[in-house]
What does this fold into?
Amino acid sequence: MIGGGQGAFIGAVHRIASRIDNEYQLVCGAFSSDAERSRASGLLLDLPAQRCYASWQQMLEQEQALPAHERVQVICIVTPNHLHFEPAKQAMLAGFDVILDKPMTFSLVEAKELQKVVEETGRLFCLTHTYTGYPMVKEARQLVKSGKLGEIRKVYVEYPQGWLSTFVEGTNNKQATWRTDPAKSGIAGAMGDIGIHAFNLAEYVSGVEVTQLCADINTVVKGRRLDDDGAALLRFSNGASGVLIATQVAAGEENKVKVRVYGENGGLEWQQEDANTLLVKWANKPAEIWRTGGGYTSSFAAHNTRTPSGHPEGYLEAFANLYRNFALHVKARQAGETPSPEVLDYPGIKEGVRGMAFIENVIASGKSTQKWTDFII
Amino acid sequence: MIGGGQGAFIGAVHRIASRIDNEYQLVCGAFSSDAERSRASGLLLDLPAQRCYASWQQMLEQEQALPAHERVQVICIVTPNHLHFEPAKQAMLAGFDVILDKPMTFSLVEAKELQKVVEETGRLFCLTHTYTGYPMVKEARQLVKSGKLGEIRKVYVEYPQGWLSTFVEGTNNKQATWRTDPAKSGIAGAMGDIGIHAFNLAEYVSGVEVTQLCADINTVVKGRRLDDDGAALLRFSNGASGVLIATQVAAGEENKVKVRVYGENGGLEWQQEDANTLLVKWANKPAEIWRTGGGYTSSFAAHNTRTPSGHPEGYLEAFANLYRNFALHVKARQAGETPSPEVLDYPGIKEGVRGMAFIENVIASGKSTQKWTDFII
Amino acid sequence: MIGGGQGAFIGAVHRIASRIDNEYQLVCGAFSSDAERSRASGLLLDLPAQRCYASWQQMLEQEQALPAHERVQVICIVTPNHLHFEPAKQAMLAGFDVILDKPMTFSLVEAKELQKVVEETGRLFCLTHTYTGYPMVKEARQLVKSGKLGEIRKVYVEYPQGWLSTFVEGTNNKQATWRTDPAKSGIAGAMGDIGIHAFNLAEYVSGVEVTQLCADINTVVKGRRLDDDGAALLRFSNGASGVLIATQVAAGEENKVKVRVYGENGGLEWQQEDANTLLVKWANKPAEIWRTGGGYTSSFAAHNTRTPSGHPEGYLEAFANLYRNFALHVKARQAGETPSPEVLDYPGIKEGVRGMAFIENVIASGKSTQKWTDFII
Amino acid sequence: MIGGGQGAFIGAVHRIASRIDNEYQLVCGAFSSDAERSRASGLLLDLPAQRCYASWQQMLEQEQALPAHERVQVICIVTPNHLHFEPAKQAMLAGFDVILDKPMTFSLVEAKELQKVVEETGRLFCLTHTYTGYPMVKEARQLVKSGKLGEIRKVYVEYPQGWLSTFVEGTNNKQATWRTDPAKSGIAGAMGDIGIHAFNLAEYVSGVEVTQLCADINTVVKGRRLDDDGAALLRFSNGASGVLIATQVAAGEENKVKVRVYGENGGLEWQQEDANTLLVKWANKPAEIWRTGGGYTSSFAAHNTRTPSGHPEGYLEAFANLYRNFALHVKARQAGETPSPEVLDYPGIKEGVRGMAFIENVIASGKSTQKWTDFII
It folds into this structure.
């Protein structure tokens, strides 16, 4: 693991996710750019001192030198955005498979370069867009793919948060501080932190791609250096249209990701607050409540569920689904086997590039006086 | 009553609304442009034959000729949009107070002219934007006004319906037929039918006015002559921003009007499906469930509620609140009294003009390649 | 109308319910046992002075003396429980049809006598068990009757309120005062006020009758003279079992009536708080959300709905459904026609007798040391 | 681990729960009474062959013989009920701390004997009543303890499931087969499987103990050998009363555990389907939505939450909370430290004895013709 030392939020989440299905073992780490801090963090995680590295460069170098059966296999990178690209690239060049937190890189240029690295090294790559790990989100995608809803016409996605309603970066809030710092986050704040999740969710569930957008991007809180709010009108490859909302100043909201997709015959609705439910709506019959663990769900939902219906699985299990599928892919490749489509259904380099393109396109649109702008990669 | 003959939807709703609080008596009507049909409809409503008029012109003329104590006092107009302006204008010129269904007129030009008629005749005027009749919508407005949420920053409003997901105007659907006919509806379909409700709700609750917008207006169903779908990015007078969604092709949706408003300290959420509840969210304490009939609600909510908390009041009662407040205003004026602010809180000519401006502005923006357009009246 | 003078709750509700569908006109009343108060109440309701009677006896006498076309047709009685039986009996003997608020009488003995009066006079009789007037409650009954759920096994019904959590009868609360006074309420408090509704709802929806019960009846608030809380284990005629909960000391609850019924193949759930929804659950497929106004509902639900799906109808419309169906029955009889089953589906004398039997049985069981007691009429 | 071989449900859940917080490592197991099956299961779990034991007796013996630092520390027992007592007893006698699945033993006699073993050996003991591991259940308990709701008056708890609606034990359903077999389950079916959870939850949240009960216990499905349904009226030590419902024949229900507690001033409601929410209701102000991760929650909720508010944690995290607290207790004792009250808040031997007493009392009451029976331990 690179990053995720003491006090980090997402690092701990990654570690839990990796443990849930027993497919990973934490064997080494460069948990901080501060060598001492990295070492302390690693020891707290029961690592032997010699595998708590002073830097990620050191880690890659020394791990490569280990015999294959001792060597780390998958490198997980959970640093702030500006420290995604280089370690990811070097890890793959060093022969490791990589799990990387979103947004994939600091810029679209980096993203495309990383894509080349993936293609050239042939390493496996997973980007942790957590929400697509939820079984009912997978079910939603499968329902759209089945054609039962008919051609998709409308896609609404929203991600309201409230935690940046005040100038918390002025307090001692580590999470807020780097996320609102252009040098660490990149050109986007809310759009890069949560808008990108909404975008990924919209494309994943609807199965169609954004081709044009028209965005309103705002910095609501005085003194903030990046956007903390935005919305975009969307047009999709098949002619569908939609709306994306992402804000971090909806005071009182937690993390209420929600996606709705409507086709000619019906629609679907999923929201994280009720994550084990997929509402399926029909034009001429009662709406249905599809549930995690229900015997009627697709193999994609079933594959990503651990307990019988009625036992809520949550955010950590969704995260763990990414980890598990990636592990199964890694193992299958080692075994020379072809993984099932269910295993392969995790976000990777393509989603990463599109996500970075979203950031650049949505920020550009926000600044533009032109109404519709093409979604350019 | 003008319009609302057999088979009409909204005419029957108006009549129920007028009865609920016993403030009105139906005394005459021109229920259809077809004289025979008007008469038949009136008889079914237990009117004496001589007050079932062949036309609204006849009605105004003959009612004026009646002695004051027999004469109709309030004229309620529930015709399709193209037949709003002229009867409303003539009714006021003839000395009657008027209740008019939304959208107020066929065009903004008519709306402004009607505004002049109201000003010049001094007649009372009510426009039936039903959703602002709900007690918890009134509570929402009062909460914003109280300043407890702080300065308003975000306004999200949506009105998804699904009943026009197919080309129902090609079947024998009376409601769909006139609503999708430019000669009867005006320049807008979904925007004039439901978008205008969403717009009115957003301004009413937030207490701020739209100053700019950027709209995506679509005709999704093949062969349809007016828009059936749209969304708009909004900017408000106080610097707040927002999103308005209105669609009639969200297959499987009924009538799920919903409004969310966020200020510096918290937010609120109301949706028609759970009309007796107002969710109030705070940045640093638990969200609260405010309920119709709760002893803690404002005088505005209390005034518009008939039953103790726990007895759901619905759409018809919301409608009846408009009717009741208008009647109390009419009576107060007759008695030379000043009505309370609670009574005066019903939509009128100003909301009507802004609504028609919304229609013209949103449709224009939909056609424009310019991103933000000023909201012009 | 007998009872329902100024300050009464349920009288006003009855009047609204009677107006909604325009089938009734208030023509006379004895609104209070205080002649002056009765007169004042009637004048406020726009009645002519001569039809504001000093007593219900006077009303029956003088109305009988009027010519048939001027005479009141239906007598509606909304007095406290101890004043139900005599006016209802005399009204029927005087040739009027009767609408009576629940519980039907002061005692089971009176109830059985009233049943005889109904049988002997042949008058029509309606008891206002409001909850069975909700379209989705009717739908629930029809679903059970259809056999789709299979043989019914479990019936859970609950009615939690919180308004009697403190000794409010010690304050100036009119509603609480008579309801907790044995001389006015009868032998039961909560059981007679709301337990009886729960009982009626359980039998109506499940289509099976309680044959045995085992009750725990409590007076929780110190100083109270009647029960304010209870629960009962139930056994039904077909072998099903169930639980009934009714309490007025669930502090913080409003009026959350809820019924759940399970058969071999699935179950249903309805609650007043979301009155326009019926949840239908299946053993092996997704649960369904049936909605008022949905095209797939039975003729019984459709007949009792006024607006298209998505326009919430509430408590007052449920009440109005009782009134409307009774009016249609009265008119059909006058016209010598047979009403449809949908019209006839309103609570009457049979439900009244069973309800009074419930009160006596449940209170007796509460006092008994015997576990199961037969439900005796 | 004892039990939990291939095909077992709860064994896998225990293992996930043990991994989430990285406090445990699976080091050995006797996963099945079939030696070969045990070995195969262990190998699949990456255990070395020599620590996949042929029987739990062998495991205890051989592990005891290992040097302390290699030896297993905590024995987790996840066998069917009839195989709880003996291994738990022997494990403690052999010096190991024990985690045991519920119900604690096969009978109350065994339970009391196990209690003596705990007292005499001084070993630590955890019983996995999962629902009390949910942070919002802990919050509920703390809220009651704080006194803000006032003296508790009513306790309603319910646990409806539908998976035993048909004779599934006649099919090849392993879970159903042993649960409906008196030789493996004990004297109770539904009461021992889920009723005991409901009972534990009721006492845990309300902070008062059941002193009397009156139960209706049924075997609804033909041919079944144990109860699959029941309900009980409850009386509590402080004078409160309540109702417990547990059924496995509510066709269409999943696992909808729900508890409601009302005091003089307000009430609370928690249900597993919305596990991250605690509804707090007040007599005279709006109900509140308390959420996992909310800054206003108690130290008990906060201690048992991993992610910020808005990231749903579910059943596996609730389970993991038991595991983590037990581990922290074990470690604290090793370190000679006193654990915090938050750590000590996990179910143990006392809850186990009361749970077994519940089973015996509720089944006895179900058979009794006496109404109220004392809750005897």
